[in-house]
Amino acid sequence: MRFCHLARPGRGVYAHPMTGPTRIVEAVLPEDLELTPELEPDAAPQPVEAPPPEVLPGQAAHDHGALSFLRVFKHRNYRLFFSGQLVSLMGNWITSVSQGWLVYDLTHSPLLLGVTSFAGAAPIFFFSAFGGAIADRFDHRRMLLITQSLACAQSALLAILTLTGMIRIWEIVALALFQGFVYAFDVPIRQAMTVEMVGKEDLRHAISLNAMMFNLARVTGPPVAGILIAIMGVGVCFALDAVSYGAVILSLSMMAFAARPKRRHSDAIRSVILGARYVWGTRDIRISLILVSVCSAFGAAYLTLLPAFARDVLHQDSQGLGYLYGGVGAGALLGAYALARVPDRHLMMTPLVAALGFGLSLIAFSQSHIFWLSLLLLTPCSFSLMLLGGATNSIVQLVSRDDMRGRVVAFYAMAFLGMMPWGSLILGFVAEHFGTSLAVTFGGLACILGAAFAWNGRRDAGRMQAA
């Protein structure tokens, strides 16, 4: 008779009853993985393969040349992903500007701008953890084909209702809610697929390039949207977005991945609970997500108020709003490039510095009533927010275990994207009753306080390590 004792996590000891322990194996098993061995009575115990060790921020992507991030294009799947996403994201930004303009044109209410934003992002807060559990369980490419097809259908329906003159505010909110539900599953699955496309060695570069792609679309999409709204109307913008989804669906169809090893996991609820325990119990991940939650809720919500800021404070039309969004994209594009240039030894402190800069920039922007000055001040705002979000994304993906990455990324999406609608409601209420400028100032102060909290947490962690 032979037995094998496995601790989770801890040490596994293979012992023979006559000779005693003969081998010690270090094994860390996923807590939600169900082991169902079916061994013959005389079969020898099989060694358990532990997940590969984590890649810590200081061990990843050592090449810091000016264009070193471009080496991710050596991966065929990533080339396909990049080309499809770039086209689709341009359409997404055109719709984002058009939807905000349509809501404000129909209602003239900053509060309803916040409600629409809340409807589009609230599902990410409530359901992205389940999206992460799915990302750890099922084939990423197939799941993305489903989510992208559903998003395409939503944009097509929005275009039809608008072009036929049947659109109402409740329909815009309902469709935004549906889109948010789709993204609650799409975002963690797409983020978790990044390491599958490029490997851990190029993960930081891929995250930086993804951010650059996102913000290149943000630079080009909103000005185009402003022109299209003025010339052809918002319905055409929604239709173009629906068509743009064809590019990403085609690129996903052309990808090929090695078969993933099959795992039998526990039920979805338990998987989410275990993911939450892992996130809270890992100090670097916990501090990073708390900081990005505060800045997203109270700082990033300024994006929701831009239509009101453009019309009521800066006295601009749809083209002026498009230029403001373009300024946001330009700053964020610079922030994404800066992320690729951050030395590994400074990665952990980057979110703190970025959050402080974000808060100060928001306060300066909120006090400007001159269009060109406001446009310039949006650059450091979006630069800092992009650096904050990108650095946090890099930290949580590099620190997390392989079997937990999908759920960790889901909690990141919950913090960065899911907290924004709550802030949109709060700042929308403040803007409705006390003015848009004061609402943005309040958000900037909250970001500064969040940076102070995170700095204190990092300092305590350093003292504990030194001790």
Describe this structure in words.
The structure is a single chain. The protein is mainly α and 467 residues long. It has 2 domains: 1-29, no CATH class; 75-268 and 279-418 and 428-466, Up-down Bundle (Growth Hormone, Chain: A), CATH 1.20.1250.20. The chain contains 15 helices and 3 strands. A 3-stranded antiparallel β-sheet has the order 1-2-3, with no helix packed on it. The radius of gyration is 24 Å and the shape is globular.
Topology:
Blueprint: E1 3-6, E2 10-16, E3 20-27, H1 76-107, H2 110-135, H3 140-163, H4 169-198, H5 203-231, H6 234-254, H7 268-281, H8 283-298, H9 306-313, H10 318-341, H11 350-366, H12 371-399, H13 405-418, H14 420-434, H15 436-466
Antiparallel strand pairs: 1-2, 2-3
Net shape: globular
Quickly give the structural class: mainly alpha
Low-confidence stretches: 1-62
In CATH, what is the class of the largest domain? Mainly Alpha
Number of domains: 2
Rg, rounded, reads 24 Å
Distance between the termini: 46 Å
Per DSSP E runs of 2 or more residues, the count of β-strands stands at 3
The portion of residues assigned to helices is: over 70%
Q: Give the ordered list of helices and strands.
A: EEEHHHHHHHHHHHHHHH
The CATH architecture of the largest domain: Up-down Bundle
List the keywords:
single chain, 467 residues, mainly alpha, three-stranded antiparallel β-sheet, 15 helices, globular, disordered N terminus
